[in-house]
Amino acid sequence: MSNGVENTAERLPLPGTSFLKVRPIVIEGRAEGEIRAGAAQPSTMPDGWWIALFWVQDGDGVVSCREVAPLAGPPPISPLERYGALMTNGLGDLLAVEEGRSCLKLRLVGEAAQSSEPWRRPLALQVAAKWDPIRVATMSGSKVAEAALDAFARAVEVAHRP
Fold first, then answer.
1. Which one, of 99, 159, 160, lies nearest residue 130 by Cα?
2. What distance in Å separates the CA atoms of residue 42 and residue 53, rounded to the nearest whole number?
3. Phi-psi map region of 44: left, alpha, beta (phi>0 left; psi -120 to 50 alpha)
4. 89 φ, ψ to 5°?
5. How far is CA 133 from CA 28, 80, 84, 95, 138, in A?
6. Which residue, among 62, 48, 17, 23, has the nearest Cα to 151 in the 3D structure?
7. What helix, strand, coil percent values describe the chain, rounded to 5?
8. How many CB atoms lie within 10 A of CB 5?
9. What is the mean pLDDT of each successive set of 10 residues along the chain, which is 162 residues long?
């Protein structure tokens, strides 16, 4: 692989063509536009939860969380905790709130090869959200998906910073 990643369990092939226009992600040490965020077409479940798959890709497929972690090393929290907090902040008042908690659930696709190294896994994230009906009333479904993909791309950029 072009980035020196030897453990293929940390990467995945692309899950398909992005439903939305891919978003360039600015990461120190990577050429502009080299890595991008993509998304599968979202769906809404009968219980109102909106679900989509987001990923970060380069020319070789889905990158690992470690490849976009801070250069000094990954933080002591898991990538799921880091991206969850950043995406919740990025989506802000678009998210519904139930019992005082923002309605956002994240799950990384695949398992870490070693539980002691949670950042060594593919950066493919299943996102489930409930949207605030008043905030999204004037937005099309694709605009809501674009807002979620933008929040994901920004979360990856911010998580890269120490």
1. 99
2. 7
3. beta
4. -65, -40
5. 37, 26, 21, 9, 9
6. 23
7. 30, 25, 45
8. 16
9. 53 93 92 93 96 96 92 88 96 96 94 85 96 96 97 95 80
